[in-house]
Amino acid sequence: MHTQTIFELSQEAERLLQLALQNLDALKSMPIAAMDSTTAAITGVSNNVLPLHFSTRGVETQLSMLNNELRKITRLEMVLAIVGTMKAGKSTTINAIVGTEVLPNRNRPMTALPTMIRHTPGQKEPVLHFAHVSPIDTLIKQLQEKLCNHDRGKLTQRLEIDKDMNALLGRIEQGQAFEKHYLGAEPIFQCLKSLNDLVRLSQALGVDFPFTEYTAIEHIPVIEVEFVHLAGMDSHLGQLTLLDTPGPNEAGQPHLQKMLNEQLARSSAVLAVMDYTQLKSISDEEVRQAISAVGKSVPLYALVNKFDQKDRNSDDEEQVRAMISGTLMKGNISPGQIYPVSSMWAYLANRARFEIANNGRLPDHQEQRWVQDFAEAALGRRWRTADLDDVEHIRHAADLLWEDSLFEQPIRKLIYAAYANASLYALRSASHKLLNYAQNAREYLDFRYQGLTVAFDELELNISRLEEDMALLQMRQDVVSDEVGHEVEQALDAAQTFITHQKNQIQQAISHIFDGDNILDLAGIDRMNLRNGAQHDMGQLVLDDEGQAQIVLSKIRSSCELVMLDAQGKISRELALRFDQLESTLARSLNEAMRPIEKRIKEELSHAGFRARISFPAFQASQLNFNTRGLFNDAIASENRPAGEISGSSSVRETVSRWLNNPGWGWEDCVVTRTRYVIDVAQLHTRIKEHIDQFCEQIYKALVAQVDVSVTAGMATFFAEFSLCLTGLQESLRDSLAVRQQNEHSTRALSQLLQQCITTATWIQEDTRLLRDDIQTLFAAEQT
């Protein structure tokens, strides 16, 4: 590592950050439009659109972001933000990366506050530091007062009170404060559990949880522990820190989405934990939107967790990478930065190897549940207690489980690299943030400065024309909505025709399977002699041998399964293609409809002496990508194998039952075990046909619902962003007009201040580009 060069680059980054902060402070003294209230008034949208960079709130956000980068630069800290939904296995993934259990796992949201996990060489036992605990202590006093006058029975009706919540209620009633330090896994677990339960309790009692007190990254809890995978490695400049972020809407707190976006924007890189079984769910979509929003300035990586649940019909590693990179993330992440893994297997394997290395054996499985989970994963469901005593066998099983988890690749390619190059990641993060700031500042300041040089009447005229353009935008929105509705209607009609055609083809294939001659062929019965141990009459097949009856049923089930698997592939490919085309068509329609307004505004402002830059939003409707395979799998229903069924048949039965959305679908009714064995083939065929009809109808209904939601949301965001852009231009012109209405001295003073700020922003931009290039050169040198 080029130690001296890193030191010099960090000093330069620190200088530029200080300069940018001083420039922002100067901007705060200028008259700035109150965009927060204007946005809501004009567009009716306040949550889905980011604040303008130089609104009142926007300036404060930028100050906070730059101060955070300054803090990271002084420590040369690389912050890898971990983001994912509650069920994606985020905590398990963090435990797998660290190599031991530092975060608790419960089947409920477990990240009320962001938490940092910092690699600290030599710190074998984790320690949690919670210096900024005073807002929590204040909250406990408020809750204590509430509980004094609150009926415990009513609270029980609104809140699940388990032993953890009971313990927390006792602490609150006694007025016990949170500690500032917790040593050891169990005390840390209890602290984090209590914080999360405080969120739920506050919500139930109508008391605001102090989330805003923890927006600054230096105020959140920090766990220091040595990462097992990095133990013994050569020391490097800089620090590697994981940031456990709250998922969107976690714990029923919608404003956590804003906290998530802010934390991601302040990180050095982002690692998304995705659920392999729910890749195209609505909750997973929220995570993808959050990380896509920061994808241009922050490197993105993804772990596709629960890959151990892949079966022979599921997408393989390459298919998953291609789907996430292209279809789901729209090219914002490369396939090489996507890793299908099993975090649970990785965590269990690590934990077992750690225990054997330190204690010579595993703990008692009856005292620590994870040992049972490990044994089942590594040794199989029929493991015995005696197996755990064979240490060499257990060590080998743990190594194999680690290998099967596929976690070695992300550890080597991501975690090792992040640790070795932590200082470079911190520097690159700072350079990207500085470049974004400088570019936005120059554009805003140029526009404000131009407003002081054009004629007074030109300002008034352009403000008036912008009002007309905003009215025109509303009219065009109504027209475009009708056009988009027509496109969607046509696409859905075509999809319904296609689904109907596929349903008919499935029914024909199934009818062939249940054809009388085919049934006899499957049973191996001579058509010319049905009396020899078998009868086939009135849609029933009667056999004297139970084993033969089971074999016939198995063949029928296998034939149906092949037909349905083939149909699944066709429907999935065709509908995905159709709605990718629809998304492109809608984006083109919106852009064509709005381009005349965009062109007119630029021409008008240019004529008046302005150089306006209008950021034209892109229509994003990625929720149009639906999971056809998921529509099949959502109907999964497990059933117990009836007595007498041959081995292996139940798995086939479950597969076909899931496809037909009916657990069992009457197999038991079709085989009657007496002295003879009767298969009611006609009844079985009728039931399958009915369920195929229902299934195809469900596909279309789900499709209509998803398209409606995604198109509505996508258009609302598109027009809200465009309206916000116009409003920003209008407010900047009004600011200029207000200044021009003052005396000449005020105008001259503001003009000088703007010129100074423009010059400073230009210097920052030019120097930061040089800094970024030097950092990229070092990155390239380290990778060779």
From TrEMBL:
One of its GO terms (molecular function) is GTP binding. Residues 74-412 form the Dynamin-type G domain. Keywords: Coiled coil. This is Dynamin-type G domain-containing protein. The keyword RNA-binding does not apply. It comes from the Bacteria. It comes from Enterobacter sp. (strain 638). PANTHER family: GTPASE DER. Pfam families: Dynamin_N (PF00350). Residues 449-476 form a coiled coil. SUPFAM superfamilies: P-loop containing nucleoside triphosphate hydrolases. The keyword Coiled coil applies. CDD domains: Ras_like_GTPase.
